[in-house]
Amino acid sequence: MKLSLPPEVSGFMEKMAAAGFAVYVVGGSVRDFLSGKENHDWDFTTDATPEQIMAVFPESFYDNAFGTVGVKMADGEIFEITTFRKEGKYSDRRHPDEVSWGKTVEEDLARRDFTVNAMAMDLKDHLIDPFGGQTDLRNKVIKAVGNPEDRFSEDALRMIRAVRLATQLCFTIDEATFLSIKENASLITKISGERVRDEMTKILSAKYPADGVKLLYNAGLLDYLLPELARGVGMKQPGHHIHDVFTHSLEALRFCKSSSWLVRLATLIHDIGKPATYKEFNGKPTFYNHEVVGAAIAKTIAARWHLSKDDREKLYILVRWHMFTVSELLTDAAIRRFIKRVGKENVADMLDLRIADRLGSGSRETSWRLEQFKDRIIEVQKHIPSVTDLKVNGNDVMQTLGIGPGPKVGKILNKLFEEITENPEKNERDYLLKRAEQLG
Ligand code: ATP
Ligand code: MG
């Protein structure tokens, strides 16, 4: 079957060609195109300089220091087109010290990370594939372009990219490439938290995120990216647990049914406080207060990866309160307290985490207690009490205390309301009048 480029893509390329320039679809777009995936992210490369590209597309904008120009298409989609590059020296393992324009598309392909990402396609659907990308795509292999050693010391982010692409595409990593990652893993500490986060969120969003995290571990990267999690490897757990702490964390992630990368991250690190709180008691491991310590660790991870304020808070909450009890003996007030602590908007995610936690330790998905707890959460939320539910009102308070209207009346009513929120059974007229007297 012969695939051909969609009309808006070839139309775009024809405009560049008509102006006398060489132009190719390149990188991940070619990879996805050849795999028959729907592609929403078209990247191009050309021998035209950014100024020359902008002359062909006057409504375009210059994107960054690497010669990428963004062109807005009729449907609002942005096509990115970058001048052929060849790269100079790297010092911080991420940014080229000098970007010099390349002369040929082959030169541009040679500076790309993996063979499946180092193919280009011209207007006639002719493939330029100097590194055997097509074969590796067929064999589902992520393989560094050229010498992996050099490529990873030029830019250490490529090591996580290898794992990320293997995870997203369900590919394996070529042996020499993998060995080189293992040898160079410590270089990953040179990469900024934001870039690590962007790759980690992609790994966590993939269809099999637990396999991705396991691959990070096998590649030696997890020791640097999430050392607190790697500490759980081989750490025994008592009682109903069938796995060590690390395996349990991975299994919980595997079973997490949320599609949110953040909830998945919380699930992965929910027990991250265990290694730090490990203590043997009567010959048995204990992890007293691990959720408190774990929540503090979650905060440092969130800071390391520069998560947004909302994401940081949510991660903290999900780890901090994951040990909630679901006993049938809980009062409505206790359930209301749980909802308040966790936040109404996080309750469903908190339950997803708990279910993943259960499945990840070899338990059944749910229990009658958990089901009852879920029902009661819904029940309790149907009726959130308000001050008007109080069995006494302002007039009652004024009469009892023999005072006139004023701020004191409101204060006492609020205090009474707080008390009945905690203990709804105390919402009795006689009792409340007595309390008003005491408070007055
Ligand atoms: P996706 O967009 O699906 O996440 P992608 O392969 O398009 O995957 P991008 O980050 O968009 O990934 O990068 C586009 C292309 O740029 C890659 O296919 C690759 O050719 C090249 N590239 C990206 N990052 C690097 C890097 N760190 N080193 C070398 N080449 C890179
Ligand atoms: Mg892309």
Task: Spell out the blueprint of helices and strands.
Elements: H1 7-18, E1 23-26, H2 28-34, E2 43-46, H3 50-56, E3 61-62, E4 68-72, E5 78-83, E6 85-87, E7 99-101, H4 105-110, E8 120-121, E9 127-128, H5 133-138, E10 141-142, H6 148-154, H7 157-169, E11 172-173, H8 175-184, H9 193-205, H10 209-218, H11 222-225, H12 227-230, H13 245-255, H14 261-268, H15 274-277, E12 279-281, E13 284-286, H16 290-304, H17 309-320, H18 332-342, H19 347-359, H20 368-382, H21 394-401, H22 407-422, H23 429-439
Parallel strand pairs: 2-5, 10-11
Antiparallel strand pairs: 1-2, 1-8, 3-4, 4-5, 6-7, 8-9, 12-13
Helix pairs in contact: 6-8, 7-9, 7-10, 9-14, 10-13, 13-14, 13-19, 14-17, 14-19, 16-17, 18-20
This protein binds adenosine-5'-triphosphate and magnesium ion.
Key terms for this structure?
4 domains, 23 helices, Beta Polymerase, domain 2, Hydrophobic Seed Protein, binds adenosine-5'-triphosphate, alpha+beta, single chain
* Count of individual beta strands: 13
How far apart are the termini? 86 Å
How are strands sequenced across the largest beta sheet?
Answer: 3-4-5-2-1-8-9
CATH fold naming of the largest domain: Hypothetical protein af1432
The percent range for helix content is 40-55%
Class from secondary-structure proportions? alpha+beta
Q: What number of structural domains do the residues give?
A: 4
What is the correct CATH architecture of the largest domain?
A: Orthogonal Bundle
Strand content: 5-15%
Mean pLDDT: 92
Radius of gyration using CA atoms only: 29 Å
* CATH class placement of the largest domain: Mainly Alpha
Query: Ranges with pLDDT <50 over ≥5 residues?
Result: none
Biggest sheet descriptor: 7 strands, mixed
Bound ions, cofactors and other small molecules, one mention each: adenosine-5'-triphosphate, magnesium ion
* Tally of DSSP helical segments: 23
**What is the 3D form?**
elongated
